[in-house]
Amino acid sequence: MALQWFEPNLLSDSNPNDHPLWMDDWREFVIELQTTLRPHNPVTDAKHELDCLQMKESGLPNHIKDEICCVGKA
């Protein structure tokens, strides 16, 4: 699918100055990929993102950990 979308621009013989911005800029290319080839089912994508959530390395503040610990013992 991606090749079919990008191939016409990559193989074009037209003026080299007349090409999409994403051909010269990695960030623009990534944005083009994300917007063009995003998931077809946003609900499934949201579920996947929720399943993959992780707490940052810093974790919870100590005062919250202490409260959770006390609640767990009660």
Characterise the protein shown here.
- By secondary structure, this protein is mostly helical.
- The protein is 57% helix and 0% strand.
- It is built from 4 helices and no strands.
- The radius of gyration is 23 Å and the shape is elongated.
- The N and C termini lie far apart (55 Å).
Q: Which key features would you list for this structure?
A:
74 residues; 57% helix
Number of helical elements? 4
Major sheet: size, sense and barrel closure? none
Can you count the beta strands?
0
Beta-strand content: under 5%
Question: Structural class, judged by helices and strands?
Answer: mainly alpha
What is the CA-based Rg, rounded? 23 Å
Q: What is the averaged pLDDT score?
A: 77
SSE run: HHHH
**Poorly predicted spans:** none
Described by the principal axes of the CA atoms, the overall outline is elongated
Q: What is the helix content?
A: 55-70%
Report the end-to-end length measured between terminal Cα atoms. Answer: 55 Å
Summarize the structure.
The protein is mostly helical and 74 residues long.
Task: Describe how the helices and strands are arranged.
Layout: H1 2-10, H2 26-36, H3 42-51, H4 62-73
